[in-house]
Design a protein that fits this description.
Layout (H helix, E strand, L loop, with lengths): L3 H6 L9 H10 L4 H7 L2 H4 L8 H4 L5 H29 L4 H5 L3 H9 L7 E2 L2 H10 L2 H4 L1 H20 L11 H23 L10 H14 L4 H30 L7 H15 L1 H18 L49 H8 L2 H24 L5 H16 L7 E2 L1 H9 L7 H20 L4 H12 L6 H9 L4 H13 L2 H20 L3 E7 L2 E7 L4 H20 L6 E5 L8 H16 L3 E5 L3 H10 L5 E2 L2 H8 L22 E3 L6
Helix pairs in contact: 6-9, 6-16, 6-20, 6-21, 6-22, 8-19, 8-21, 9-18, 11-18, 11-19, 12-13, 12-22, 12-24, 12-25, 14-15, 14-16, 14-22, 18-19, 18-25, 24-25, 26-27
């Protein structure tokens, strides 16, 4: 039995136990695993593990919410089925795997998602990542499924360590360059289906361009596929444009109550234009079926799809028969099978994809969630979204899914449909499951050209050309990470391009950190230097160059300089490197009979400096330093055009040239 004092310590984290309680526990029963388990109560776990947002909105759920969510879920469901079938082709997987990846993410996000508009599932960029990293043409479908599990585990661990803030290091130009290049790569990979090219085309962008156009001009193309593909692209773009017209009608007549038949007609037109992909695929499949019934082989079809729901099982840690990149079906037993087993071998094959796939998945989701949160006036937590996508990928991997993330197009439709809560995902998942259970025999008649037309028209909207002109007007330097992300993704690959751009962005931030802003004024034979912002080891060397530059400039002009007063009022923290550098600088200036004086130090800064530097000259204010130094306004004879001492009486904010 434990004493009352010991029982009071139970249920509290070990970090909250005082020394007496800790020693009492060790003396009586030691720090056992049971002690740790008892300390991790539900209340304490919630402090570091993201919660379940469903508990906030479910008690307030109303019949109006149910009607709105049902309409939104139905609309998104009709949209996701043709998209999922098409995106599986980008991943290099059999078409049914796109549907396998489209239902569990919606159900998982219902419990752990914080954005009401977001819908999870396969996307074009994530499908391209799977094709690049998991390489189904070599390792089969098992690698893609296991990648979903690994991706989810990495994202879940990142959420527990609050690493969602990493998204702050990815700027808008990087995101724009990355998505634009990925969209062009995806579209280029689908051009071969528009022309009916059956031969394998290399996956890198340059190889895809060369291979596709060589086959177009020298190989065998199919006129039926060209007519079908171009017709579908024109119809999709026309319906997409007509949808914007319908929405403008509603915006212009928002204050006017229209008759019921007008409102019904507009709602019907909106529904038709929103579900254009499903209608287009259905019409194309009917045409293909009619041609097949007459033994007319004019179109390349999607082919046989496995009927029924996926079986629930743990992801296999081994390779499987490779997927034929043309038919998207597993090779026969005579093909070269890459016998890879075990987690270590899979991680070695995934290479940098173990990090890039989770990061890009998080990047897509957070960017989409933040955009619609701003639009609809609510707040999301990046760590919560990281937790949500991690849970979704882990659960989805048990149903033969490849990695999923947030879809911009489906999220936009979800928001426009008036979604109220993530419960709309139940309806979307039900439609996907219904399609898997009933409609898969019909899907084999879908023309590949129609699927490619859907993909091309969807991804070309991701290419952002206007940002180049905007950045040229606003800040030209931001064109550098944009260009690195764009050309790196285009020519090095999607997994390396975005990482390279992020590295360039971080290097640029570090460069700015090492070049602090400052302002100064010269009064008599004393220079007062004010620091604007923090001072740490990257920037203290630059401060040293500034002060030595002032000394050199004064010596060159034969001006007497007796002291440099540093105003620390804007500096909140310093590190040990700052202490060492200031000590060396103080010794250097002393040899030139120049005093280094410090004023307006915050308590944390003063504690560090006084501890590390003996005999430091510190004054509470600039005025105190001036009075102690007996400053008088003397004519120094300095000219306005001097590089540093430009003005004797005014404070001017500047940044010193790099050559000082």
């Amino acid at each position: 039995m434990y004493s009352r004092r010991d029982r009071l310590s139970r249920g509290r984290p070990l970090s909250l136990l005082n020394d007496e309680q800790m020693s009492f526990s060790r003396e009586n029963r030691g720090l056992t695993l049971a002690t740790v388990r008892q300390s991790l109560t539900l209340k304490n776990v919630k402090e570091w593990l993201p919660g379940f947002p469903i508990v906030r909105w479910l008690p307030k759920y109303s019949m109006y919410d149910l009607q709105s969510d049902f309409t939104a879920g139905l609309t998104v469901g009709l949209m996701v089925v043709p998209q999922a079938i098409a995106y599986a082709g980008i991943a290099g997987l059999p078409h049914e795997y796109g549907l396998y990846s489209s239902f569990m993410g919606c159900l998982a996000y219902l419990f752990v998602g914080s954005a009401k508009d977001v819908t999870l599932g396969p996307t074009a960029i994530m499908s391209l990542m799977v094709n690049r990293v998991a390489d189904p043409s070599t390792y089969g479908v098992n690698y893609a499924v296991t990648l979903s599990l690994i991706c989810g585990v990495v994202q879940l661990l990142m959420s527990m360590f609050r690493l969602g803030a990493m998204m702050s290091f990815i700027s808008a130009p990087v995101i724009s360059g990355f998505t634009s290049a990925a969209a062009i790569t995806i579209a280029m990979g689908q051009v071969k289906h528009i022309f009916g090219v059956k031969k394998h085309v290399p996956r890198p962008f340059i190889g895809a361009v060369n291979g596709t156009f060589y086959e177009v001009f020298h190989g065998d193309i199919r006129g039926g596929d060209i007519i079908m593909g171009l017709s579908c692209m024109i119809i999709v773009m026309a319906l997409k444009h007509f949808k914007t017209v319908v929405m403008k009608w509603d915006e212009n007549d928002k204050e006017v109550l229209k008759p019921r038949h007008v409102r019904f007609a507009r709602k019907f037109l909106w529904f038709i234009t929103t579900g254009r992909n499903a209608l287009l695929v259905s019409a194309a499949a009917l045409i293909a079926y009619a041609l097949q019934a007459k033994n007319k082989d004019y179109l390349t079809l999607a082919g046989q799809m496995k009927k029924g729901l996926p079986s629930a099982s743990a992801p296999p840690f081994s390779s499987s028969p490779p997927i034929n990149s043309t038919t998207l079906q597993p090779c026969d037993t005579n093909c070269n099978l890459a016998n890879r087993t075990g987690l270590s071998e899979m991680l070695s094959d995934f290479d940098v994809g173990v990090i890039s796939v989770p990061l890009i998945g998080l990047l897509e989701l957070v960017a989409i969630a933040q955009a619609f949160a701003r639009q609809n006036n609510y707040i999301i937590d990046p760590n919560q979204e990281l937790f949500a996508i991690g849970v979704a990928n882990i659960l989805s991997s048990f149903f033969s899914s490849y990695p999923v993330t947030g879809s911009f197009s489906r999220t936009a439709v979800n928001a426009q449909s008036g979604v109220r809560t993530p419960a709309a995902g139940i309806v979307t998942a039900a439609i996907v499951l219904l399609a898997l259970g009933v409609l898969t025999p019909v899907f084999r008649f879908i023309p590949m050209a129609a699927l490619s037309a859907i993909i091309i028209t969807a991804v070309l909207g991701m290419v952002n050309l206007r940002i180049v002109a905007v950045l040229w007007r606003v800040k030209v330097a931001d064109l550098i990470p944009l260009a690195v992300a764009f050309f790196g993704t285009l020519f090095l690959g999607i997994e390396y391009g975005v990482l390279l751009a992020v590295v360039i962005n971080i290097m640029y931030l570090l460069y700015l950190q090492s070049r602090p802003h400052f302002s100064w004024k010269a009064v008599g034979d004393v220079v007062v230097l004010r620091l604007h912002g923090g001072l740490d080891f990257p920037s203290v060397t630059f401060l040293r160059q500034i002060i030595r530059g002032i000394e050199a400039d004064a010596s060159k002009e034969r001006v007497s300089l007796s002291a440099v007063v540093v105003d620390w009022s804007c500096v909140m923290d310093v590190d040990y490197t700052v202490v060492l550098t200031l000590q060396d600088l103080c010794d250097e200036l002393k040899r030139s009979d120049i005093s280094l004086v410090h004023a307006c130090l915050e308590p944390p800064v003063q504690k560090v400096l006084t501890t590390g530097i003996p005999n430091l000259q510190i004054y509470p204010t600039i005025e105190d330093a001036q009075s102690q130094l007996h400053i008088v306004n003397l004519s120094t004879g300095l000219r306005e055009t001097q590089p540093l001492l430009r003005s004797a009486n005014t404070m001017e904010s500047t940044r010193v040239d790099d050559d000082l």
